[in-house]
Write a structure and sequence with these properties.
Oligomer: single chain
Shape: globular
Radius of gyration: 21 Å
Order of helices and strands: HEEHEHHEHEHEEHEEEEEHEEEEHEEEH
Helix content: 25-40%
Strand content: 15-25%
Number of domains: 1
CATH class: Alpha Beta
Largest sheet: 9 strands, mixed
């Protein structure tokens, strides 16, 4: 949607094709966080050791489901190879710049007519309970400051001033003043409305069945209902990116990472500032009068099964940090889930395909799709217009694993 929005703003006639009805895609149910603080990619030091421990806990926040899948095996091998300091150090400035650019674009977008998505710039508190996590988070805060980000370590007493109505059971937190949050449900509806009102076409519940190429270019897209021709093609299909790009002869390694969220409509206890519970890997966001709790990363093929134990893991972690805050296990119909598109090195794919000259790839943003959406959309528009880019994107090369 951001790609369509910024292309449209620069004079392109846009047509969006999506297999779903655009009412409940992955960007609707997430934590709504804009996080320059998240400059460490998913493939990072320590994740493999921790991941092996979590494999034996049905409530754990990270899980790779074993299966007889060659794509999964290749993804896991590449993920392991990149889970090191070298990858994390290389990724940090790229992810920081992309996220800061996106944050600035969100500020501008919030001032545009027809947009009101409850954008707030209160930062995010990274809570920790153990000495080990405290050491890790304080080291990360030091790294963040070296990258020019505003990160402030806080004691429990200092946090209590910011959250006077919430009982705390923590050692402390790091307050990332550089972060923000919004209400994604409003944002998505407003992007869709803007695209339609400015002459864009949206073909929802429409599957792409064939991409026709000729002499290194896409000639047309064949859907279940029609043939669509254009000058430029942007493949931004989330977890379906590999399937779509393969139709054009381009291999993009990516696996879905299922996450869950629960939205509390009338919270008895409400946080002032969004929180991430570092040991539990759970995010809590006050948004638009609600409270949203989200977490887990379950690497597996796309499926509609709800793992109730992982949802219970999210809920059980909350009172460990906030004793007065409780959330009952909701009915299955009230549990939201979506699929994050995860690249094996934790970096997004943004750029032209070298193999197919008029195809731009935009995806693989893992847990930061909403936060990085505007920056990615603007970069897509600049690439399509052959305009100077506002930041370096060589690390996001879509064919870096080819």
């Amino acid at each position: 949607m951001c790609s369509a929005y910024y292309l449209q703003k620069t004079g392109w006639q846009v047509t969006v094709i999506d297999a779903n009805d655009l009412s409940d895609n992955c960007s609707y149910g997430n934590a709504g966080m804009i996080v320059p603080s998240h400059f460490t990619p998913l493939a990072s030091p320590g994740i493999i050791t921790q991941g092996i421990k979590w494999m034996f806990d049905s409530k754990s926040p990270f899980y790779i489901k074993p299966s007889f899948s060659w794509d999964l095996l290749k993804w896991v091998i590449t993920f392991i190879r990149h889970s090191n300091n070298k990858n994390a150090e290389h990724a940090a400035p790229y992810l920081r710049d992309l996220s800061l650019f996106s944050s600035a674009l969100y500020q501008g977008l919030s001032q545009e007519p027809g947009f009101d998505f409850a954008l707030e710039r209160k930062g995010i508190l990274m809570y920790f309970k153990t000495e080990k996590s405290a050491e890790e988070e304080l080291h990360l805060a030091e790294k963040a400051r070296s990258l020019g980000l505003d990160a402030e370590p806080l004691s429990k007493k200092q946090i209590q001033v910011l959250e006077p109505d919430t009982e705390l059971d923590v050692l402390g937190a790091v307050h990332y003043h550089c972060d923000g949050h919004l209400y994604p449900n409003n944002l998505m509806k407003q992007l869709i409305n803007s695209i339609k009102e400015n002459g864009g076409e949206i073909h929802a519940t429409t599957n792409v069945v064939k991409i026709e190429t000729d002499q290194g270019k896409i000639k047309s897209i064949h859907s279940t209902t029609e043939k669509i021709e254009g000058d430029m093609y942007v493949v931004a299909g989330g977890c379906w990116l590999p399937k779509l790009s393969k139709m054009a002869g381009v291999n993009i390694p990516l696996m879905p990472g299922k996450g869950y969220s629960i939205t509390q409509k009338n919270p008895a206890v409400k946080l002032n500032i969004p929180a991430i519970l570092t040991e539990a890997r759970v995010a809590i966001t006050p948004m638009n009068g609600f409270m949203r709790f989200g977490g887990t990363m379950e690497i597996a093929s796309v499926n509609n099964r709800i793992n109730i134990n992982r949802v219970r893991g999210i809920i059980d972690s909350i009172p460990n940090y906030f004793p007065g805050m409780t959330q009952e296990l909701p009915a299955v119909k009230d549990i939201w889930y979506g699929f994050r598109p995860c690249s094996p090195d934790g970096m997004p794919y943004i750029g032209f395909s070298k193999k197919v000259k008029n195809m731009i790839i935009a995806g693989g943003h893992s847990m930061m799709g909403l936060g990085l959406g505007p920056a990615t959309g603007r970069l897509v528009a600049d690439l399509a217009n052959e305009a100077p880019l506002p930041l370096k994107i060589d690390a996001f090369n879509p064919e870096r694993f080819s």
